[in-house]
Design brief:
It is built from eleven helices and 15 strands. By secondary structure, the chain is of the alpha/beta class.
Length: about 325
């Protein structure tokens, strides 16, 4: 098969290669997917850069955890109904060496989900990491039906999914954006109200709901935690999947007096049942009318270096997809 890989960390142009590798074979409980589209996430870039100084877990890595395609082989113990089915997958390169930047990938069957009708392979390739992260961030503190959920960074990849999933889950959704240009994007995802994220954020949110919000999905914990605490109701909660600062200061007493709960989320290690529920609800949101992501770039596998560079330095809005 044709595949892209790297054998040492570094800049895309220095370490990514494209060539031929043996076709993989699914083991027991696994399926083989003929990949049509491979999604790139910030985590894929960080792994290739060794941004956290963890080194190479495997001597050769085919990057990208998310993708979509068609199941063309099944391993022992896998129901025959999966064979030939169009699917999207997640976690292909989580605790595994070979991801979706190849003609074929092999994953456990519980890491694939049917691709809903009228949803493109490109959309399916975008769902995994941001969708699972968003679902956990929305639901980790409990059901959101009838509650008010604030999504910080509602125009980002995780933010868009969080808005759609919170709306699908029955919440009243407020999205924050950094510019007026992002308001339409957040509204299309399902936000009831969209507000600018600036020094007046808390005042704007309180003008919508004077009693505060029940739950916050947070993309920049360090810079936003003070405003988050101000906006939350008593016994409210914050679920953070990213931060601007690795060692943020926390307003402990303000949080303690409000009995605020905090959740810090890493998508590779979510419970399996949470991941399965996330896949089911993402498909449900798409089938209910969520339009999904804007696709900004479609780059062939042979030009994967360019694809990675465009994730690092975008030339237009939208997700970057590697086509296979």
């Amino acid at each position: 098969m044709k595949a892209a890989w790297y054998e040492k960390p570094g800049p895309a142009r220095d370490v990514l290669k494209v060539g031929e590798m043996p076709d993989p074979t699914p083991a027991e409980g696994e399926v083989r997917i003929r990949i049509a589209a491979s999604g790139i996430n910030p985590g894929d870039i960080k792994k290739r850069q060794d941004a956290f100084g963890l080194g190479m877990a495997y001597p050769r890595v085919i990057p990208h955890s998310d993708g979509a395609g068609r199941v063309d082989q099944i391993g022992a113990g896998v129901a025959s109904e999966w064979l030939g089915r169009e699917i999207w997958c997640y976690g292909a390169q989580s605790y595994r060496a070979f991801g979706t930047a190849a003609e074929f990938t092999v994953v456990p069957v519980d890491q694939v989900a049917p691709l809903p009708k009228n949803v493109s392979m490109e959309q399916g390739a975008c769902l995994g990491i941001p969708g699972l992260t968003a679902h956990r961030a929305v639901h980790v503190a409990g059901p959101v039906s009838g509650r008010t959920v604030l999504v910080q960074g509602a125009a980002g990849a995780v933010g868009l999914c969080a808005v759609a999933l919170a709306r699908y889950g029955g919440a009243h959704v407020i999205g924050t954006v950094r510019s007026a240009a992002d308001e339409v994007t957040a509204k299309q995802a399902g936000a009831h109200e969209v507000v600018l994220s600036d020094q007046q954020l808390a005042a704007r949110v309180k003008s919508i709901g004077p009693d505060g919000v029940d739950h916050i999905v947070e993309v920049a914990f360090g810079v936003n935690v003070d405003a988050d605490v101000d906006m939350l109701k008593n016994t409210g909660s914050i679920a953070s999947y990213a931060t601007d600062s690795a060692t943020p200061k926390v307003p402990f007493w303000q949080m303690a007096f409000k009995n605020i709960r905090g959740f810090f989320l890493g998508s590779d290690d979510f419970p399996k049942e949470a991941k399965r529920q996330a896949a089911q609800d993402l498909n449900g949101a798409l089938e209910a009318g969520w339009p999904g992501f804007d696709i900004g770039e479609r780059i062939p596998l042979a030009e994967i270096v360019l694809a990675h560079e465009l994730v690092e330095h975008p030339r237009r809005r939208g997700r970057v997809i590697v086509t296979v």
